[in-house]
Write the structure tokens for this entry.
Amino acid sequence: MSKKFSDFPAAGPLTGGETAAGLQAGANVQLPLGTAAAHADTDFATAAQGAKADSAVQPGDIGTAATHAATDFDAAGAAAAAQSAAEAHADAGDATLVPNTRTVNGHPLSSDVVVTAADVGAAANCKIEVFTTSGTWTKATGALSHRVLVIGGGGGGGSGRRGAAGTVRCGGGGGGGGGRSEAFFRATDLGATETVTIGGGGAGGAAITTDDTNGGAGSSGVQTSFGSWLRATAGTGGGGGTNAAGTNGQSGGGMISNGGNGGAASTTGGAGAAPSVNANFAPGGGGSGGGITSGDAESAGGNGGTAGTYVISSSGAAGGAIATAGTAGTANAPSFHGGGGGGGGSSKTTNAGAGGAAAVYGAGGGGGGASLNATGNSGAGAAGAAGVVVIFTYF
């Protein structure tokens, strides 16, 4: 039976008479503590092992490890899968889908995006309006800017003189070409509507049917304008043939280029002349009519002016041979301005040739040829061509 220390009587105080043998006998009393547990030395950690255990990370400190498949970390595999999906869209003709593997400005798309025509917008285009008669222009909705081209009307050619044998009879002068102006405007600069005024071409001088009568002068053309923004002046008419001259019509003015002058008739009744000044970027003037010299020699009319010296496809209209009308001027569609008409040839045996017609737009008419009394009428001058307004609208 085991005992606790409290089961034994407490020791009394020493009295001084105790013997050493008595004290020894009291100290030898054994306590019944039971049998000590038996363990080998290896069952206990050494001091070094204990220190390591104090600093070791315990399982509870780590938690449960995450579990992932190897393919979760396969970047090359993921990229290949994305490419395969994109190609599948393309093979299916699904052109409106944008794979979410693509980026916009360096940022990946979070999901497939459907792109419609409204998202992209319509392609920018240009609207061209050509006014050959006066009217009102209306600005289109959505317009951003405008380019406006304006050409003035051309002058008419003068008719030739009809006179007696042995005298100088001059052909009529060619009409001048109208000027050309052009400018760009912001859409906000222009009104919702603008007035378009087309200048007409001048009339040609009438053929002379009365003996010993000078030719009639051609009329000047009329200015063309676009609202209060832009204008181009007209060419003047060629002078009627006299016994000393057939003055040429003068060109109209414009901010891009003046028109071409008309051809002046020979002062001695010789051949008609082409314009001395051709336009660079504007309508040509008309050629003058052929005259008859004091020696009664007939002559051909002069060539018309070109539709711009820098227009490769342009060439002057040919003047008419004896008793033949001048050739009509040539229109130049890309540049919207035409060439002047050729002058008519003179005649002492029949009616003289009329001036050639002016080409659209704004060219001068050719002058008519001279004739002999009692044998035929002089050639009439041709009318100048009307002007034009062309408006290019950009969206």
Observations:
- The chain is about 10% helix and 15% strand.
- The CA atoms of residues 157 and 381 lie 4 Å apart.
- The helical segments are 20-27, 47-55, 59-62, 75-91, 117-120.
- The radius of gyration is 56 Å.
